[in-house]
Amino acid sequence: MNGTQLVFLGVGAVILVSAVLVVTTRNLIHAALWLIVTLFGVAILYALLNAGFLAVAQVVIYIGAIAILFIFAVMLTSKESRDRGPQHNQAWWLGAIVAALTFGGLLWMLHGWSGFTKSAAGIPAGFDAVDALGNALVAPDAYVLPFEVASVLLLAALIGAVYVAFTRKQESR
Amino acid sequence: MIPLSWYLILSAGLFSVGLFGVLSRRNAIAILLGVELMLNAVNINLVAFWRYGSVADMAGQVFAIIVFAVAAAEVAVGLALVISVYRQRRTVIAGDLDMMKW
């Protein structure tokens, strides 16, 4: 049990506890704030995995944009329509059973896989992960096409979001 | 050094918690929160497989970045729909939205 493993166990416990609080807390603002804790824990995992760029992107995109968008959406809907009545539907136990079965099934499937307990090889000397990622994203023989398609998708989604949430004059009384 | 299995078990747990949130929550915004948890679980897996596989092949990290972009698009459109529905029906409870049921 060395330092890295202790960090992993601590971060993993924080991630799981805050994720459970995200799906069980009554007050949605608190659920969104717990989501930020979960996302921050995942960013630490990326740093542990030597994926520095993804750790920074996780903080900037997920916490800085997506979680804040959630908080705005929660605040734009009224409290009585949001928090009245039970927060879970009548079949929540069915959802719990399906989630537990999924977890058990995944563990069973992973258990039978030969690479399950693999440990990581060292990073080769002189290898820069951020450099390699940047090259892979723009190299024509690598991932430039999916990268461009993702940018078009993002543009289309944002224009669509503005259109859907737009208040027309005759509708807003 | 941390074995690969720890990451996979953690991400399976996070995915299951998110799945429970999607299946059990009544509020449409809370359902989207569950989807975010599931996407993060998938991303942990992708990055862990990149690190424990061959490091020079960047497919895992590139796929994780595409998942970031798709998650941002999904949240923008999803929350716009929720707010638009809330303006018209004054509710965000997924069970009350039965306009398209027959």
Report on the structure:
The complex is a heterodimer of chains A (173) and B (102). With 173 residues, chain A is mainly alpha-helical. Chain A folds into two domains: 1-82, Four Helix Bundle (Hemerythrin (Met), subunit A) (Up-down Bundle); 130-173. Helices cover 72% and strands 0% of the residues of chain A. Chain A contains seven helices and no strands. Chain A has helices at residues 3-24, 28-48, 52-76, 79-83, 92-111, 129-138, 144-165. The termini of chain A are far apart. The mean pLDDT of chain A is 86. With 102 residues, chain B is an all-alpha fold. Chain B has a single domain, classed as Helix Hairpins (Orthogonal Bundle), CATH 1.10.287.3510. Chain B contains three helices and no strands. Chain B has helices spanning 4-24, 28-52, 59-89. The longest helix of chain B is centred in the C-terminal third of the chain and has 31 residues, at 59-89. Chain B is elongated.
Note the gap between the termini of chain A.
Answer: 64 Å
* CATH architecture classification of chain B: Orthogonal Bundle
Beta strand count of chain B: 0
What are the segments of chain B in which pLDDT stays under 50 over at least 5 consecutive residues?
Answer: none
Q: Which chain pair has the greatest contact? A: A-B, 94 and 74 residues
Helix-strand category of chain A = mainly alpha
CATH topology of chain B: Helix Hairpins
- Strand fraction of chain A equals under 5%
